[in-house]
Amino acid sequence: MPERALFVSCLHSAVVFLLLAAPTFAQTSKIFQWKFSSDTLSNSLATCVSLPITVQPYNVTNTTGSSGVPPYYMMAFAVGGTPTTTLIGTDNKTLNWQPTHAPGTTLMLSVVDSTMSAGGVPPSLYTVIAGQSTQCVVNDDTNDFTVSSNVTGDITTCQPWGLRIKGGTPPYNVTFAAANSPIVTNVTMPFGDDAFTYIDRADPNTQLLAAISDLTGRWAKGTPIVSTKGSANVDCIGLVSSSGNSTDLDRQSSGSGTNKTAIIVGVVVPVVVLLILGAVFAWWFRRRRERQRLLIEPDVLPRQFEETGGQVLSITNFSNSSPPPSSKALVFNDTPYASNGPVRSASASSAAVSSTYYSSTASPQDDRGLEPNRRPNSAGRPGFAAFPSAPVRRTGKAAEAGSADADEEVVIQHRDGGAAPVRELPPPYADRNASGPSTS
């Protein structure tokens, strides 16, 4: 047994050396294929049970084809756990393997030969269940060498997949395996790099797994797995998988986040400032136009008339007040004017009033029939006090005869009012015709 253990250890070291010998390569594929010898074996594998394995040429019709170069190894990738590499034999007719993972572990399996040629990955994953014995189960309690992923669900064709490694002995090797794939891809990272970004070129609608091993052949715990989807075109032109240092990548990511924030602030702040300035300008412009409109529009609202003295007067004050004792009601004189003075005629006195002037029966008239204070060159002007408090109607003839009753109605009418009397109080105004009214 000690010799066998030493031999297995040496073979494992040789496998690790082959994995790290080239920076990046895919294992030789389509040389041989493998399967469990029992056709009745399900996807559940019992612990510590020896399972026979058969290898044969990839092209089963080629009887002279190669079945791989012994010895053979079983690479059991535990999803979310620690993978294992186990020697399964040196004779392709007596190969067998037993699960040593804890019950409940999900495994993706692949058989490789001494030249690192892969026999392919089955289309289904296997689940470990408890067998009659669990003495061979290896406890997976180490946490000093781990791998983590930035994607835990689905991944699209050509989408970057980031891996971070902690612990172990660099340089590291990354192994990518996909269900129902004839190959397993190995990538050796440069010394000092502990992060790897993989561009998904796996076939869609399958499961892709990434496992990490270090220089000593240890496997990292936490093997991630994702489900692939998207296009079958995996050219991904311009995209290249690459490795790097996680510290530098974190710094760049932080810097890009800061730059992104600065860009957002640089774009949003000026826009907000412009909007505020625009709102202020619109308010100012509208206020200015409103002021200009108020200055231009005429004052059409009714207001009470105020004399220079500040006293508010109303026409009702004059209509309700009684006239002075010495004043007489103003009457129409139907005497028409001639060029040299008033001309009286019977026809004019009996005809409709066509042209009249203001006169007072209490004051003497001049040669034109006007009161001295009513002449155009007189300094005096008629006012509201001369109006009667109640309407009195008198005819022109009655006024000439001088017979007037105090209760008679006096109609005060414009000279252009016609024959019909006007029964409303006109506004007072002075006769400003210096030469007298003209005859019609």
* Broad shape: elongated
- Count of helix runs: 5
With strands numbered from the N-terminus, the spatial order across the biggest sheet is: 1-14-13-16-17-11
- The ordered string of helix (H) and strand (E) elements is HEEEEEEEEEEEEEEEEEEHHEHEEHE
Approximate strand percentage: 15-25%
Looking at the chains present, what oligomeric state does this protein adopt? single chain
- What is the CA-based Rg, rounded? 61 Å
Instruction: Give the low-pLDDT segments.
Output: 1-25, 326-380
Q: For the report, how would you describe the main beta sheet?
A: 6 strands, mixed
Distance between the termini: 156 Å
Structural class designation = alpha+beta
Helix content: 10-25%
Q: pLDDT average, as an integer?
A: 74
Give me the count of strands: 22
Give a structural overview.
By secondary structure, this protein is an alpha+beta fold. 20% of the residues lie in helices and 23% in strands. The protein contains 5 helices and 22 strands. The strands form 6 sheets. Strands 1-14-13-16-17-11 form a 6-stranded mixed sheet, with helices on one face. A 5-stranded mixed sheet has the order 3-9-8-5-6, with helices on one face. Strands 10-12-15-18 form a 4-stranded antiparallel sheet. A hairpin with a 5-residue loop joins strand 13 (173-178) and strand 14 (184-188). Mean pLDDT is 74; it is low at 1-25 and 326-380.
